[in-house]
Amino acid sequence: MRILITNDDGINAPGLEVLTEIAAEIAGPKGEVWTVAPAFEQSGVGHCISYSHPTLVARLAERRYAAEGSPADCVLAAIADIMAESPPDLVLSGVNRGNNSGENVMYSGTIGGAMEAALQGLPAIALSQYLGPETQGLDDPFEAARAHGPEVIRRLLARGDWSSDADFRLFYNVNFPPLPAPAVRGLRVAPQGRRQGSNFGVVPYTAPNGRRFMWVAGGSQQAPAQAGSDVAVNLDGYVSITPMRADLTCHLSLDRLTEALDPQLPSVEPGSLPFRKREVTESR
């Protein structure tokens, strides 16, 4: 088996070393593990690609490359150039330092790398290590991912839905709970959730020269979410597995919206809103 690995924390990230070990175990002694990862940290870039400027790709060692771009760029570089003559059988993205459960999915470069692989028709899995109070004192904060990652991937490869006949191929989002490896309680298939009352915001900052800047700040990662969601099962000690696809259509609303926009129905009165405007609060 030929496995491509990437991440969004950068080529020198500890989580990528963990993923290299996991991928080598999955590939087996006759397999190959290829690395194409960002030269610098790309956390929070989502599924962006470097469409308007070229991306430098450097060979660091045999089957190991760094690209000055996003995780999606790295996947494109691998399948269209570096591994073009013999594409990978599987793409693994991670292991991210921090969870990609809940609303974090929408910002994650780790997810973006796996999504690009799926869009290119390749089987892909994103892996992330939830961090919390019980991982702070560990010598290896990736302990849960390192210990349980190979078995999770094997089970997905053996029993997951890898059909490729849909317009948007499935990929999988795996999050390991914020616990030592022996404390992990098992696996749960879970939908993406959202933490209650926890959003990304900004912290404004004025530099000594008077110019205005801002830091983007995340909300509490320990905030609760809907029961049974990825966040909830992670905080309850389980590895979450969430099937995903790049299609963002809300299929449940299609028929209702088609009926609601019937030209025979009255429109909203000018100046009125059928919904309440969200109150905007400043992040501190």
TrEMBL record:
Keyword Membrane belongs to the record: no
Molecular function as annotated in GO: 3'-nucleotidase activity; 5'-nucleotidase activity; exopolyphosphatase activity; metal ion binding; nucleotide binding
Catalytic reaction list: a ribonucleoside 5'-phosphate + H2O = a ribonucleoside + phosphate
InterPro entries: SurE, SurE-like_Pase/nucleotidase, SurE-like_sf
All copies of domain Survival protein SurE-like phosphatase/nucleotidase, residue ranges: 3-196
Record carries keyword Cytoplasm: yes
Keyword entries, A-Z: Cytoplasm, Hydrolase, Metal-binding, Nucleotide-binding
Annotated a divalent metal cation binding sites: D8, D9, S43, N96
Cofactor: a divalent metal cation
GO CC terms in record: cytoplasm
Entry's cofactor comment: Binds 1 divalent metal cation per subunit.
Enzyme Commission number: 3.1.3.5
Compartment(s) where it occurs, according to its Swiss-Prot or TrEMBL record: Cytoplasm
Superkingdom classification of source: Bacteria
Function: Nucleotidase that shows phosphatase activity on nucleoside 5'-monophosphates.
PANTHER family in the record: 5'-NUCLEOTIDASE SURE, 5'_3'-NUCLEOTIDASE SURE
Protein name per its UniProtKB record: 5'-nucleotidase SurE
Organism: Paracoccus siganidrum
Gene name for this UniProt entry: surE
